[in-house]
Amino acid sequence: MGNNMNSKNQPQGYAIEFLDSKNEPLPYCNIEMSINGHPVSETPLQADEKGRLVFHPSLVEQPGKVLRIKVIFWNEQYPKTAHSEVPEFTWLTGKKIVRLRAYNIYEMTPRSIPNENNEPTTYKRPYHLVKPGDTWERIEKETGINQYVLIWENGLDESTPLGTLVGKKLYFPRGSRKGYAKSADRNKKTDINKKEGNNVLQMRSENNGKPVDVAISPKKYECFCHRDFTVEEFKLIMQKLRKSKAVPNLWIPALRGGASPSDKSYETTVKELNRVMNKYEINTCLRKIHFLAQAYHETHLFQSMQEYTSPYTTQYDPYRGRGFIHLTHKRNYENFSVDMNDPNIVKNPSIVATNITYAFESGGWFWKKGVMLSNNKPGLWKYPNTAPKSIHERIKIEGANCNKSIVSYGNSKETFGVLDLNVLADNDWGNTISWLVNGGSNGFDDRIKYRALLKEVMKYDSCENKK
User: Fold this and answer.
1) Which of 25, 84, 170, 305 could join 128 via S-S bond, C-beta 3.0 to 4.6 A?
2) Is the four-CA dihedral 236, 237, 238, 244 of positive or negative sign?
């Protein structure tokens, strides 16, 4: 199968594009590729004249399976070394092309300032060792280097989940050394000299007297792809959504029958939201926009984690809508309960609204594996003609279709066909998502309005992954 890649008879599919350190294609570079430790070819593959390796989507996407991809690539300009190997990654569902960049391999030689303690005169490349729970925001703060500079320097793709890099080294770009003086100390004993033509500051460390280079990231808008929200960012989003000059309160039900967790702080809300979005791969601007737009409507503007009492709730009580994307109906509570290994979710369903962990967890769970289909046979899902007449044409125009996900819940061997709403969000199929989340046309126009507003607030036009 591997040797048939890039064949002229190969159907149009996914591709990996190989680039040099200046972002130029590497035509005809050599490639070794493995999936879950199994090589796709006995001999090295070769990119085409555009530096691309084209292959069928099934090579990197298989329903219900996690496929870990390892790639090594090289040519005469970038010889095969230990640095030719790209950190293992998983394919972002539905992504057509992934770009991998060659490493800059270099050593740094000290200037005329002598080292201490008879240290060697050549410095190896500094790096950050990725730890469990690391976020790009935390790494940027620790290293002082922009995440996209690190991604570029390490030949990563923007879609690579940070969690798959735990234990790996993120090498710093040229002219950087690990560790730098704290800003509070810079006015004491630190000499600062700006290099002409280079975006680097050289400083003398107060701790050891050695020169320390700190790369300065260019000032630009940073989109929300593959990073956490900060508390201040989420507060600003809420102000824009509510059109309020003051920061609005969270999780205070406005009508009878509502319920929410006791902890209503922004800090806990943002912590749980980031946790769930990372866990369920809601990790790009567009995925977050669609997820938040639906949740904002479902929770009555982030006021109540439980559906307000109405003539409709009596039809499915005690399993009325609860959680960040209101989990509704007994079957959904049962599946969520099995997956969480907690029978109390079915016995006492109100905890999906009052337990803050379950409140957010249920939203991410439903988004990724809660939209059940009629069968568990792998294949292509296409929108059916069952939507209400009032919204049918708007759904038909989108023409949504995607591969089913085949999942199981908890330790059960039984499998189910579901839709991963991330895939629909990647294609901006907001009408179809609104129908699937609600099951009808309730609040349809509001959901679409919130999507548009969130695109504006989150500056989606500036997103680096905008299609």
Assistant:
1) 170
2) positive
pLDDT (tens digit, 9 = 90+) per residue, 62-73?
A: 888 888 899 999
Among 331, 296, 294, CA closest to 418: 331
Please list, in sequence order, all residues whose beta carbon lies within 8 angstroms of the beta carbon of residue 312, skipping any fewer than 6 positions away. none
318 prior amide bond cis, ω within 30: yes
Q: What is the pLDDT of residues 96-126, one digit of tens each?
A: 888 888 765 444 444 444 444 454 444 455 7
pTM flag (> 0.70): no
Q: Strand order in 52-55's β-sheet? A: 52-55, 14-19, 97-101
Report the C-alpha dihedral over residues 385, 391, 396, 401, rounded to 10 degrees: -70
Percent of the chain with pLDDT over 70: 80
Distance of CA 410 to the CA centre of its chain: 24
Is it the case that residue 195 has pLDDT exceeding 50? no
Question: Whole-angstrom Cα distance, residue 21 to residue 78?
Answer: 10
Instruction: Indicate the DSSP class of residue 327.
Output: B
- Please name the helix (run of DSSP H) or strand (run of DSSP E) that holds residue 423, with its range, or none: helix 421-426
What is d(CA 142, CA 135) in angstroms, rounded to the nearest whole number?
A: 11
Q: Is 461 helix (H, G, I), strand (E, B) or coil?
A: helix
Annotate 216-283 with DSSP letters as a single string.
PPPP----STTSPPPHHHHHHHHHHHHT-SSPPP-S---STT----S---HHHHHHHHHHHHHHTT--
Whether the CB-CB separation of 387 and 438 falls below 8 Å is answered with no
**Dihedral through CA 43, CA 48, CA 53, CA 58, nearest 10?**
-90
Structure tokens at 243: 């059109």
Q: Give CA 397 to chain center in angstroms.
A: 28
pLDDT tens digits along 398-440: 999 999 999 999 999 999 999 999 999 999 999 999 999 998 8
Tokens of 351: 């905890």
Exposed (0-12), middle (13-18) or buried (19+): which is 327, by Cβ within 10 Å?
Answer: buried
The H or E element containing residue 35 is strand 30-35
Q: Cα-flanking dihedrals φ and ψ of residue 192, to 5°?
A: -120, 125
User: How far is Cα 66 from Cα 163, in angstroms, rounded to an integer?
Assistant: 13
Q: Can you name the residues that pair with 214 across neighbouring β-strands?
A: 201
